[in-house]
Design brief:
The protein is α/β, with parallel strands linked by helices and 298 residues long. The chain has one domain: P-loop containing nucleotide triphosphate hydrolases (Rossmann fold). The chain has seven helices and twelve strands. The strands form two sheets. The protein has an eight-stranded mixed beta sheet, with helices on both faces. Strand 6 and strand 7 form a beta hairpin. It binds adenosine-5'-diphosphate.
Length: 298
């Protein structure tokens, strides 16, 4: 793929996992949302419920969500704004504790954040007073595990060679997000938790970032949970797209995306891709309407 320096599986018993785009190609879900998982799940989310309590007014954000994510799987969580996607991600990250239910990683209950679960947000978390190289080294330094060769390799993989001594404000938005990816990968996380990381970028940069992320994911063994409200982005990236309901967030349906890999952006115009896209739009449309009605009612 080209890189430019200038930028620029719940299906609880009552829910389904769709095997491909065919309307009548649906098959009943497995016990849990684990459609494409071979073997043991890395992440197990069991009955995750989160109630926020802003000023005594309970907000039920997520309601009894079950989901398994396999080792090295790329899962996209797709849903309208406010449906609880970030809440789910932050419970996996260990930033938030569930009100009910639990999240397990490798069989262990998540209680706190851990470098093995790296998080990227839409707004990068680079330290503005540190250079790109210093930002990348910061996490490993905390664990006395700096690997300069690895950081150099990551800078190369993300097209940031020569920018090691630059400060974040000297880079374009897309380059900052690439630096954020370097920072994340320098910590060698088993799980990459990505919360709409590209949604602030222009369309062309976003496509390049998606291709670059897939290149990195295909080269290295990582498990990714990627949050988006962009249907095309979800289908392009994922092995499975988990479509959520409007708040309170639950799994509405899981789409197994059986598009060949490696994926390149020109596949978004193919009939097969369009078919997945139509299916996802169909599923999310009612939820988006409900989410909008909720927002207007607030
Ligand atoms: P999404 O990521 O899908 O946009 P969120 O997980 O951010 O959704 O939020 C789900 C719901 O929980 C929303 O209605 C949001 O307003 C509410 N919410 C999120 N965080 C808090 C909080 N700290 N206090 C109160 N309500 C919150």
């Amino acid at each position: 793929m080209s890189r430019q320096d200038t930028d620029d599986r719940k299906s609880t018993d009552d829910r389904k996992s769709t095997d491909g785009p065919l309307q009548n190609g649906q098959r009943p879900g497995s016990e849990r949302a684990q459609g494409g998982i071979d073997g043991e799940a890395l992440v197990e989310i069991d009955g995750l419920t989160k109630i926020y309590d802003p000023g005594g007014a309970d907000v039920l954000a997520v309601d009894g969500l079950d989901l398994d994510i396999g080792h090295n799987e790329f899962v996209c969580l797709l849903g309208p704004s406010g449906c609880g996607k970030s809440t789910v991600l932050e419970c996996i990250a260990g930033y938030l504790g569930p009100t009910e239910g639990e999240v397990r990683v490798d069989g262990e209950r998540v209680r706190d954040p851990d470098p093995s679960r790296g998080v990227v947000f839409q707004e990068n978390r680079l330290f503005p007073w540190k250079t790109i190289g210093e930002n990348a080294r910061f996490g490993p330094q905390m664990r006395s595990a700096v690997d300069d060769d690895r950081i150099e390799e990551l800078l190369g993989d993300t097209g940031l060679d020569g920018f090691e001594d630059a400060y974040p404000h000297e880079l374009s938005g897309g380059m900052q997000q690439r630096a954020e990816l370097v920072r994340l990968l320098a910590n060698d996380p088993d799980i990459m938790l990505m919360d709409e990381p590209f949604s602030g970028l222009d369309a062309m940069t976003k496509e390049l970032m998606q291709e670059m992320l897939l290149d990195i994911w295909e080269e290295e063994s990582r498990t990714v949970l990627f949050i988006t409200h962009d249907v095309e982005e979800a289908i392009f990236l994922a092995d499975r797209v988990v479509v959520m309901t409007a708040r309170p967030g639950e799994v509405k349906e899981v789409i197994d995306v059986d598009l060949e890999r490696p994926r390149e952006f020109d596949m978004v115009t193919t009939e097969e891709f369009t078919s997945y896209k139509e299916r996802a739009i169909d599923l999310i449309h009612d939820e988006a309407e409900r989410a909008m009605a909720q927002a207007e009612g607030q």
